[in-house]
Amino acid sequence: MNRKAVRSWLWVDWANSAFTTTIMATIMPIFYADVATKHMDATTSTAFWGYTQSIALIVVVLLSPVLGAIADAARSKKAFLCFFTFMGAIASVLMFFIGEGDWILASVLMIIGTIGFSGSNSFYDAFLSDLVPNEHDRDLVSSIGYSFGYIGGGILLAINLLMIQYPESFFLPDRLVATQVSFITVGLWWIGFSIPFFIHVKESKREGTQSRSVVNWTKHGFQSVGKTIRNIRRYPELLKFLVAFWFFSDGINTIIKMATIYGREVGIGQNDLIIALLLTQVVGIPFTILFGKIAENFGAMRTLTMTLFVYLLIVMLGFFMTTSLHFYLLATAVGMVQGGSQALSRSLYSRLVPTKHQAEFFGFFSLSGKFASIFGPFVFGLIGQLMNSSRLGIISIAFFFIIGIIILSTINLEKGRIEAITGNPKDDLYIA
Question: Domain Major facilitator superfamily (MFS) profile, which positions (predicted)?
C-alpha cells in the first residue's frame, strides 16, 4: 500500500465534502427557501427543492454506468474525476450570482453541481481497491476517508457560519452577500484540496489501450453497460447488496438533502439549523472511525445494519419534531451513523467486486445509490405538496430503510467474496 497515495486520496473526501455540507445540506437549502423561492409558500419551496435533487440524479443515473465502463476500458478514472471536480466547483462559484426569486438559476446550478459531485465520487470510490489491496485495511481506510470529509466539510462550514453571522468582520456588507460568498469558498476549497490527489496518485495504463473518438468511446460505453448488467447478474450476492443499497441509500440521501429545508418549514431558525448541522460534522468525525473499529470486531455487515436501525429511529422521531432541541438531538444521531454507514457500504461493496470490473461495477454502485435517490426527494416533496405538510413526507423514508435491512439480512458475505475472487466460468463471454 502506497501510503502517500492513500493520504492524497483521503484529501479528496476533505475537498468535496464542502459541497455536501455548505451547499447540499446546510446553507443552500436555507438560501433556496428564503431567497431563491422567496415568493413561494414553504411547502411548494420544499417540494421544488426535492424535485431539483431528483432531476439532477436522473442525469447522474444516465451518465454513471457509461462513464464507469469507459474509464475501466480506457484507464482514465483520474481524468474523469478531475473533469467532474471542476464542473462541480465552477457551478458552486457561479451560485454567487443567485438573487431573490432566481429559483430557476438556483435549481440549474444545483443540478450541475450535484452532477459534478456525484460524477467525481463515482471515480473516487473506484480507486479504493487499487490503493488498498488488503481487504482487512479497507474498512478502516474507508472510514478515515469519511472522517476526513467530516473534518474538511465541517471546518469550511464553520468558517462560512462565522462569515454569515459576522459579515462586517470579513469585510462584507451584509449576511446576504456573505451567504453568496460562501458558495465561492466551496468551489475554491474543492479544487484546492484535490490537488494532492491529482499530483501524487498515479493510474497505471492498460497495455494495448487504443485511443478512440468521443463517439466511439460513447458507443463502447453503452455496449459495456449491457455487458455490465449481464455480468452483475452472475454475482448473486453482489446483486443483492446493490438492491439493498438501492433502498437504504435512498433513505440516507433523502435525509441529507431534505433535513434542512424540512426543518425550516416546521419553524426551526436559520442559526439553529446551521449550528445543528455543524454539530453533525463534529460528531461524525470520531463516530465514523469508531464504526470502522466496531466493524473489525463485530463484522461490517452487522455494524452497517446497526446504523440503519438508528436511521429508522431518526425518521420516526423526525415526524414529531417541533423544537430546535429536537433538531439538535436528531442531527447528533445522524452524525453518529452517517459516515459509518457510508464508509462500511463502500468497503463491503469493494469486497464483492471482481478486480477486472472495478471502475465499471463501482459506476453501478454509484448508479444504484443515485437511481434510488431520485425517488426519495421526489416522494418526500410530492407527498408534502399534495398533503400540504412535509411531516407526512418524512414517514415515507422509513420504507426505504426497512426494505434495505431485510435484503441485507439475506446476503452471504463469504459466498460473495468467493464469487468475486473466482469469478464465473462464463464471465469471459461478456468481455470485449
Answer: 1-416
Q: From residue 324, how far is each of 21, 23, 265, 270, 271 by CA, in Å?
A: 19, 21, 12, 10, 10
Pick from 118, 114, 123, 112: nearest CA to 81: 123
Whether the Cβ atoms of residue 252 and residue 304 lie closer than 8 Å to each other: no
Cα–Cα dist 252/351, whole Å: 22
- Structural domain boundaries enclosing 258: 231-422
Q: Are 148 and 10 in contact (CB under 8 A)?
A: yes
CATH number at 369 reads 1.20.1250.20
Are 171 and 252 in a shared domain?
Answer: no
Q: Is the dihedral of CA 354, 360, 364, 366 positive or negative?
A: positive
Give the range among 51-55, 77-81, 171-175, 359-363 with minimum mean pLDDT.
359-363
Per residue in 78-93, pLDDT (tens digit) is 888 999 999 999 999 9
CA 345 – CA 339 distance, rounded (Å): 10
CB 37 within 8 A of CB 168: no
CA distance 249 to 307: 12
Q: Can you read off the three cell numbers belonging to residue 193? A: 484540496
Residue 245 lies in a domain: yes
**In sequence order, what are the residues at sequence separation of 6 or more whose Cβ sits closer than 8 angstroms to the Cβ of residue 208?**
none
Please state the length of the chain: 432
Whole-prediction pTM: 0.75
